[in-house]
Amino acid sequence: MQASGVKAWDLCCRRGDRWLFAGVGLELAPGEVLHLVGANGIGKSSLMRILAGLLPVSAGLEEGAKPGGVAWTGGVGLLDERPALDPAQPLGRALDFWAAIDGTDPDLRAHAAQRLGIAGLMDVPVRYLSTGQKKRAAMARLIGQAAPNWLLDEPFNGLDQQACGLVEEMVMEHVMAGGTCIIASHQHFHLPGLIRLELEEFAL
Ligand SMILES: Nc1ncnc2c1ncn2[C@@H]1O[C@H](COP(=O)(O)OP(=O)(O)OP(=O)(O)O)[C@@H](O)[C@H]1O
Q1: Is 16 near ligand 1, meaning CB less than 6 Å away?
Q2: Nearest CA residue ID for atom 2, ligand 1
Q3: How far, in Å, CA of 110 to CA of 102, rounded?
Q4: 10-residue block means of pLDDT along the chain (204 residues)?
Q5: 46 lines ligand 1 (CB under 6 A)
Q6: β-strands 180-184, 149-153: how paired?
């Protein structure tokens, strides 16, 4: 695996005319997992999207404040709340669309699909798949990316108990191989050494 790690500082987020958070920072070394927690609507997904580079890092509240930043060591893979798989395509084709963009390792993805129990669904249109099957497919896509850093936004949503255990196992394997992982979730994780970051109500 490539080298991993992340350092983020002074992250601020404004949605519409409302500040969600300001001055948030975090740092992860290879092998570390961070659990991002906080109430509904507090800004966990927004923070994940900033970390993934999909939302800008806003400048701080004060006049002329410098924006914060995010520095990754190695590539980043995001398991978003939405699976981003074309509903009109058979699953295999929908995953292949991303393979070219992600630089997917086909063997890694195929092995993950097998473990996740979706290898037999590649000819089924994505629109016929259940929520959990789509989540499993998104997880197989992530593993195929072989990114050293993972961002998992509510990875357990829609998964049955067995699949939740499997995803936990996959996270363990990833970090034990030297990766990092940030998980935004209301669920509990049984992962040793979990670092906890709680986003709190932000008041001006
Ligand atoms: N595109 C957008 N434009 C304006 N406001 C938005 C947008 N996306 C999200 N928000 C608002 O930002 C706030 C934070 O949303 P976010 O999804 O980051 O919260 P969360 O902590 O992940 O919530 P949950 O636990 O319910 O998933 C919410 O009030 C939401 O309505």
Answers
A1: yes
A2: 15
A3: 15
A4: 93 86 94 96 94 86 81 96 93 94 92 97 97 97 96 96 96 97 94 92 69
A5: yes
A6: parallel
